[in-house]
Amino acid sequence: MNKIRVAVLGYGHLGKWHCQKVVAHSDRVEFVAIVEKFPAGQIQAKTNHPGLRVVSDVSEIMGEIDAAFVVTPTSVHFELVKLLLENDKHVFCEKPLCSNDHEALALKKIALDKKVVLQVGHSERFHEAWERLVPRLHALKTPYTVRINRVAPFKGRATDVDVVQDLAIHDLDLLMYLFKQKPKKIKASGIKIRTNKWDHATIQVEMEEGCEAIIVVGRNHVKEMRDIEVISQDGMIFVDLFMNKILEAPKGEVSEGVFVKEDTYPKRDHLMLEHRHFYDSIQNGLKSVVGLYDGLAAVHLIDCTLESMDRHEAVIVKWT
User: Distance from the CA of 274 to the CA of which of 15, 120, 124, 239 falls in 20 to 30 A?
Assistant: First the structure.
């Protein structure tokens, strides 16, 4: 089987990790080049990957690659993904796929006509916890309530976008992935603290069959928390995504005198798994693990959330 010729577009914080995963798959991938327009990033790329080509524009190596990883600021995702698709290249794009619904529609029109793989980097789907819990979550009796926290101290990264595009997109995507009830209405509020964009957001999501979700995201918190709890007629499930724990308080006792059971699951290299799935889709014709429609749905929910924050009122989620 021929090796997949790939390039990584962007050598920032996450781009460095993607480059490491490409190198780790050298048995099935040929690393053609790193595309980085900033001189400082070019120097770092050349230092960390001696002998590898480092170019400033993807057009310089377009004819030499089969696939590309888009790991640039969100503001340029659309133009790069569009260009790659138009040139019949397989694309892995870090979340979000693009900035808004208008761009998403344009990408959809192009992607549907192409016989290439498009995968979106919604890495939070790869926790082992979901393999254990998804069948049960899909079978939950309605109505139920979901609460999600994703907050952390300020890290100085991703300030080109607001906290909704940076963090909440993970959890809005998880709502679609973990539960069968689609979002119907979103009411969100936010606070600007360290930047001129939303740094904290509270998102209330009304779903089908009386289900609801409350998502809190922030990038100026005093500690780091990533957790999700589900409260239903069957009891409560709490997943600590930071500590890799699952706690359950089921409807009945687990054993005499014990009402809460605790389990742990191993931490995974989500990025490594994403790369493996991407290459499998290209070489073996497998369906993309997080494909076009997943990426489009997440962008649409982000658009609705930001619209609600700007208008200070609830927004109806319109699915087409």
Answer: 239
